[in-house]
Amino acid sequence: MSDCLFCRIVAGEIPSTVVLETDEVLAFRDIAPAAPTHVVVVPKEHHVDVVALTATDPDLAGRLLAAGAAVAAQEGLGEGFRLVFNTGAHAGQTVFHLHLHVLGGRPMSWPPG
Ligand code: 5GP
Ligand code: ZN
Fold first, then answer.
1. Which of 1, 16, 84, 110 sits a CA distance of 20 to 30 A from 95?
2. pTM over the 0.90 mark
3. Structure confidence by residue, pLDDT tens digits, 57-88
């Protein structure tokens, strides 16, 4: 059994609310939503962060972005949304299995603080 939280979600060992799935990507609702719509999109394969993924499989990084855009469309975020990769401690990354946050459903200020 993996000790990685998102590997365990991908394996179905921890329940999640899935909104989109392909053979290589899983998108599920964040357990502590920071916006009315807050979905995280993960590659099923374990990669620590976006730097690691783009170094080893940039094509998969592109497909992950496409999945994020598809989630935004599916969630009706036509008025705007954010796609965010928190990368490293200063960015607030807490789960070290790469994930793309899809945030929307309310106006957002910049920078988020
Ligand atoms: P990070 O801070 O690493 O960029 O984002 C990790 C995200 O994972 C957080 O937004 C957090 O709420 C979410 N999260 C943590 N544990 C779980 C869980 O067990 N299930 C789901 N669905 N999301 C989780
Ligand atoms: Zn993992």
1. 110
2. yes
3. 999 999 999 999 999 999 999 999 999 999 99
Sequence length of the chain is 113
Q: Summarize pLDDT for 92-110 with one digit per residue, the tens.
A: 999 999 999 999 999 999 8
Give the closest residue (by CA) to ligand 1 atom 4: 93
> For the domain with range 5-104, which CATH number is right: 3.30.428.10, 3.30.420.40, 3.90.550.10, 3.40.50.2000?
3.30.428.10
Cβ < 5 A residues, ion ligand 2: 4, 6-7, 46, 97
What's the one-letter identity of residue 32?
A
Domain-wise residue ranges, the chain: 5-104
CB distance 41 to 84 below 8 Å: no
Cα(40) to ligand 1 centroid in Å equals 8
- Report the distance separating Cα 39 and Cα 22, nearest Å: 15
Tokens 């976006």 found at: 50
In this structure, the residue with its CA closest to atom 17 of ligand 1 is 31
